[in-house]
């Protein structure tokens, strides 16, 4: 008997449900099929590059890891430091060289190399210097690994992903920017963990109080002052986003934020930041659901008052969170390391998960600003970008997304590439 895979075809005449959920992208190529060892190359061994390399190693995502940097002594030191940990890591061959031939045959090339901004330097001048750098980085990667997927991490990531696409000549589905994958994680963190809420603990407490209906009983559970005292972290976060405890207009929004954290493992993953990885990013509050019920539409239907300023302050905290880390330790590294390793896992293991990453956005959500790369919720797999999810946006969110695209397009137009 021939073994068959799970089918997405249901209903009369085998309707393919997957085609309804995802819009196909253009200029694609099929993934290569072979049984050789998996190879990942990381370009740039600074703080970010090494955090990515270390996370990839500890998560056993590749058989061969190649490191490339322009500084040979530092590069060899980083290689040796990782090799000396061989007894504590999964078996992985670690290579390093200033010559890009070391990347030959890579399945995934992760680019973290980039020029640092000089004090008083304009953003455009920084971009021009990074464009010059990418002219030396991207073509050899494309030469030695013509079937690889490029993941760009260097900032400004959206514009540089566009640059990498142009310089590589790769189809659009195989050039991806890390985009707002990390921003979305920060978004979830600020809504959930900053409330000092653990999803499993909350579920345990709920069960202890009886069965909680996610659309009715939860409000009663959370609106009681006794339960509010159980979670002092809520009070701390309320003050950060401009709410006052006891304000009747904010009580239900506080409950919503708490409820969202309970749904973290199921629906909370739909909490996306999209658009530019930067100041013009867009928080998709309308995509967050609790128990399958969209938060904002539920509030509107129930005529529950909430203030947009509260939501905007949470989004502002997402945008500024990286600056806070940089001001405290001088750079960001671990979070982006885990974020990119997460992308690598999805891509190389064909997990077909949804990630908000920087992709060629023309034609999606009314974006017609030319060949702009920005973050949209995309399904990723072994061939790169498989499709773009049909997330419902409010008119306001859609307009903000188009404005974000326009911001990026204006910068790209000055590059002359």
From TrEMBL:
<dbReference type="InterPro" id="IPR015955">
    <property type="entry name" value="Lactate_DH/Glyco_Ohase_4_C"/>
</dbReference>
<keyword id="KW-0520">NAD</keyword>
<protein>
    <recommendedName>
        <fullName>L-lactate dehydrogenase</fullName>
        <ecNumber>1.1.1.27</ecNumber>
    </recommendedName>
</protein>
<dbReference type="InterPro" id="IPR036291">
    <property type="entry name" value="NAD(P)-bd_dom_sf"/>
</dbReference>
<comment type="similarity">
    <text>Belongs to the LDH/MDH superfamily. LDH family.</text>
</comment>
<dbReference type="Pfam" id="PF00056">
    <property type="entry name" value="Ldh_1_N"/>
</dbReference>
<dbReference type="InterPro" id="IPR022383">
    <property type="entry name" value="Lactate/malate_DH_C"/>
</dbReference>
<dbReference type="Pfam" id="PF02866">
    <property type="entry name" value="Ldh_1_C"/>
</dbReference>
<feature type="domain" description="Lactate/malate dehydrogenase N-terminal">
    <location>
        <begin position="38"/>
        <end position="177"/>
    </location>
</feature>
<dbReference type="GO" id="GO:0004459">
    <property type="term" value="F:L-lactate dehydrogenase (NAD+) activity"/>
</dbReference>
<dbReference type="InterPro" id="IPR001236">
    <property type="entry name" value="Lactate/malate_DH_N"/>
</dbReference>
<keyword id="KW-0560">Oxidoreductase</keyword>
<comment type="pathway">
    <text>Fermentation; pyruvate fermentation to lactate; (S)-lactate from pyruvate: step 1/1.</text>
</comment>
<feature type="domain" description="Lactate/malate dehydrogenase C-terminal">
    <location>
        <begin position="268"/>
        <end position="409"/>
    </location>
</feature>
<dbReference type="InterPro" id="IPR001557">
    <property type="entry name" value="L-lactate/malate_DH"/>
</dbReference>
<dbReference type="GO" id="GO:0006089">
    <property type="term" value="P:lactate metabolic process"/>
</dbReference>
<dbReference type="InterPro" id="IPR018177">
    <property type="entry name" value="L-lactate_DH_AS"/>
</dbReference>
């Amino acid at each position: 008997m021939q073994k068959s895979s799970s089918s997405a075809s249901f209903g009369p005449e085998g309707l393919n449900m997957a085609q309804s959920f995802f819009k196909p992208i253009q200029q694609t190529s099929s993934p290569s099929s072979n049984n050789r060892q998996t190879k990942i190359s990381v370009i740039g061994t600074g703080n970010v590059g090494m955090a990515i390399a270390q996370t990839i190693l500890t998560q056993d995502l590749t058989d061969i890891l190649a490191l490339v940097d322009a500084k040979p002594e530092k590069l060899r030191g980083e290689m040796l430091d990782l090799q000396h940990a061989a007894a504590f890591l999964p078996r992985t061959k670690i290579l390093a060289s200033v010559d890009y031939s070391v990347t030959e045959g890579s399945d995934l090339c992760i680019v973290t190399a980039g020029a640092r901004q000089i004090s008083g330097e304009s953003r455009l001048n920084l971009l021009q210097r990074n464009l010059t750098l990418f002219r030396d980085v991207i073509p050899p990667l494309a030469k030695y690994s013509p079937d690889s997927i490029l993941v760009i991490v260097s900032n400004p990531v959206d514009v540089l992903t566009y640059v990498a696409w142009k310089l590589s000549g790769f189809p659009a589905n195989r050039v991806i920017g890390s985009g707002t994958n990390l921003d979305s994680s920060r978004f979830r963190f600020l809504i959930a963990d900053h409330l000092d809420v653990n999803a499993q603990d909350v579920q345990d407490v709920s069960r202890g109080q009886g069965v909680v209906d996610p659309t009715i009983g939860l409000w009663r559970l959370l609106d009681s002052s006794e339960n509010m005292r159980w979670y002092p972290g809520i009070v701390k976060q309320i003050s950060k986003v401009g709410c006052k405890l006891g304000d009747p207009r904010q009580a239900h929004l506080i409950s919503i934020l708490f409820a969202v954290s309970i749904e973290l493992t199921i629906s909370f993953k739909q909490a996306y930041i999209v658009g530019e990885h930067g100041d013009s990013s867009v928080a998709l509050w309308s995509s967050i659901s609790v128990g399958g019920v969209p938060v904002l539409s539920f509030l509107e239907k129930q005529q529950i008052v909430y203030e947009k300023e509260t939501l905007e302050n949470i989004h502002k905290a997402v945008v500024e969170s990286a600056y806070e880390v940089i001001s405290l330790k001088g750079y960001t590294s671990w979070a982006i390391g885990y974020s990119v390793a997460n992308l690598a896992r999805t891509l190389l293991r064909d997990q077909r998960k949804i990630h908000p990453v920087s992709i060629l956005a023309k034609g999606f959500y009314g974006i017609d600003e030319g060949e702009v790369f920005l973050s949209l919720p995309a399904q990723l797999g072994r061939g790169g970008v498989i499709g773009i999810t049909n997330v419902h946006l409010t008119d306001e969110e859609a307009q903000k997304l188009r404005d974000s695209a326009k911001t990026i397009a204006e910068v790209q137009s000055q590059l002359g590439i």
